Each structure stands twice: as structure tokens, then as C-alpha cells.
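# step 3/5: fold
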Amino acid sequence: MSADKQDFLKSCYIKMTRARYNNMKAYTNKTIKIVLMFMLLGIFLRSGTAHALRPALQTSKLSKETSYYLKNNEKDAAKELPRTNPAYFDPDNFCFLVKSLVDFKYFNMTGKNRKLETLEITSVSCITQHHTKTLVPSGYILDVPDKNIIARYSGEVDSGLDKTEESLPFVLAVIEENGHKNLRTLKDVLSETPPDKYNEILIRMRHVRIIGMFYSANVRGAVKKKIKKEAMERCVPVIEIGKKSKIAYLPGQKSFLKQLLLGSRIQLSRL
């Protein structure tokens, strides 16, 4: 065999060997990546992160009816029952979405002091002159955009504390499994709420404003003082709910009188 032919065969052998090595290397790298992915997946599933995400992964449990409310709030918003402004209170014709005043620090199991404005999702009640039952006989009157209303129930559903967008599908699925019907409008809610029970409405707190405060006519004087004090700080009206509901405090009335008296004292002191 000539030297040229030997060199040619040698070069072919070297090329074939290199090709096999590269193929084996690529296959080995791919295998290593797959093994690493499975290892990382196993670590993730055993971690707390997977448990935290579990509610969001259980959307498959939602019925067609619950899914409808998640996707079609804006369509139903056009049919929603209008609420009234507590600053122009009419005892014979009012409709409020209210959040009962509770000790958030006591009710929050994490021990953190919650503020209403920091909640993502919360439960409120719809009250009118015909139905005034609430969880606690004092609290906030909220201005809630119709599209913020997530679900409407004619009774207590025990939706839990610290609800979030992430846990919402799971919360709705559990409520539905417990036999509670998600109603179409607040009007439907009021027509089906028993007189001695309060209803529960789930809302998103984004763009929600506190426009007033309320207390029942039979609450203690200390509670009334607390409500009025916070209302003065927020510059919102207070409504007393009872057989003869009325405005208990309206911003500007007393403050104007105090300013007038204070101005008179200043003028007299300069004489």
C-alpha cells in the first residue's frame, strides 16, 4: 500500500473518530441536562414554594359557573345595583358596600398588623334600608368599582383571611364545593339574604376608596367615639344605622364652627 493511500485512510479514521466523540459528547451533555432538570424538579416539589403555588394550580376544580365570574365581571358590571354616596345620605334609599371594623391584628394568624388598604382581596357586605345586618356593627363604607366585584353570596361563606389573587381560584372552588351559589348581581344577593344573616361579597381592593364609616345605633359610646375620630382624620361622613338611620357626622360642620371660634379668640387677643 502506497504512503499516500495510508495517509488518506489515516485521515478518514481520525475524522470518523472525532465525529463519534462529538456525537457521544453531545448525547452525554443532553443526558446530564435531563437528569439535572429532574433533580431540580424533585427539589422544587419538596420545597414550600410548590405548596404555596398549589392553590393557583387547582383551577381545574373550578366549575363552568365559577369560571364565568372570573372572566365576565365587566359584562355583569353593567347590570350591577348602583350604590349611594353617604355624603348625601337618604335614610329611605341607600345602598352601601361595607367592610366590618375588626381588630385586624387579632384576626390575622401571622401576627402582622393588617391595614384595609394593603389587602389584595377582601370580603364585604351589601346593606340597604331594608337589610342592615353585618359581621360587626361598625366599619367602613367603600366606593367599589363594579368590575372589582368578584363573587356574590347571600350568606356567610367563610372565605378565610389574607386572600390573594394567587389563592383566589382555590378559594372560589372551596366555596362552591361547600354548596354556596355565586349570584349574578347584588340585587339577587339582597333578595336571597335572610333578614337575620349578612351576605358576603368578594372584591378586589385595587382602586377602592373609603368614602364613609358606619355604626349601628346600639353600639357602645367608646366605639362611636373611635369611629368618629377616624372619620374626622379621613374626612369622611359617619352613618348611624338603625330603625331611623341618620348622618352622625359630616365633615366640615363642626370643623367650620371651631375655626370660627378660634378666629374670634385670635382677634380678641389682639385687641
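# step 4/5: annotate
Confidence is low (pLDDT under 50) at residues 48-70, 105-111, 262-271.
# step 5/5: archive (pending)
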